[in-house]
Design goal:
Blueprint lengths: L3 E6 L6 E5 L5 E6 L7 H12 L3 H5 L4 H8 L14 H4 L1 E2 L7 H12 L8 E4 L9 E4 L4 E4 L10 H17 L2 E2 L5 E2 L3 H7 L5 H9 L2
Parallel strand pairs: 1-3, 5-7
Antiparallel strand pairs: 2-3, 4-5, 6-7, 8-9
The chain binds zinc ion.
């Protein structure tokens, strides 16, 4: 191998990818959260990348990598610059749940019915990594199709709706250093007002 180039990207759902170019140089791309990963995590990820078959992967130590991945908060996948899935989201009814009705419930309960309705879309796929997102420019909420199911409690769907509407309500905050701050202290404070908030967090972890 001639060289290895490592990049960190704000991926929407990918954790890592790599390819070897015809000139022998390797390009490894990690999700941006891996910037904070330990050497052990990166080493285990590298081994996993190199073993492409299932039997080979079975014997690779991967505890540190798995623990790291499990602990990645969902909002890491709604980082500035992340796109892809959102481009293919289209407005339209769900099969089991209604985003419109979810919006009406959440708006009435938490925003005194005063929030203007954004466009509401289900994601094209049942994404477990990106549960929801709000695009300020398009004034559009996207909810993972995972929640369009009778097996997922409706208050979980409403929580995702609430979280994304808070983004609309508060706008994209700026920190004092001018960088984007997606979840401000104020955001976190309001988010906790959601009924059964702790229960929601526990259930989302097990989705
Ligand atoms: Zn968020």
């Amino acid at each position: 191998m001639r060289s290895v180039r490592v990049e960190f990207r704000p991926f929407r759902s990918t954790l890592y990818s790599y390819r070897i170019k015809p000139n022998g140089a390797a390009l490894v791309q990690f999700h941006a959260v891996f910037r904070d990963a330990s050497d052990e995590v990166l080493l285990q990820a590298a081994h996993l990348m190199l073993c492409r078959t299932r039997p080979a992967r079975r014997n690779i130590p991967r505890e540190a990598y798995d623990a790291f991945v499990r602990a990645i908060p969902p909002e890491s996948f709604e980082m500035p610059g992340a796109r892809k899935e959102s481009a293919r989201a289209r407005p339209g009814p769900g099969e089991h749940r209604s985003l419109d009705e979810s919006f009406q419930r959440v708006n009435a309960m938490y925003f005194e019915g005063k929030l203007a309705k954004p466009s509401l879309c289900w994601s094209p796929r049942r994404s477990r990594r990106l549960l929801g997102s709000y695009h300020e420019r398009k004034d559009r909420v996207i909810v993972s199709r995972l929640f369009d199911s009778e097996r997922v409690p409706i208050f979980l769907l409403d929580y995702i709706m609430y979280h994304e509407l808070l983004h609309k309500h508060l706008g994209v905050g700026k920190r004092s250093d001018g960088r984007r701050c997606v979840h401000s202290a104020e955001f976190r404070r309001l988010e906790r007002k959601y009924i059964r908030f702790e229960e929601v967090l526990a259930l989302l972890k097990r989705l």
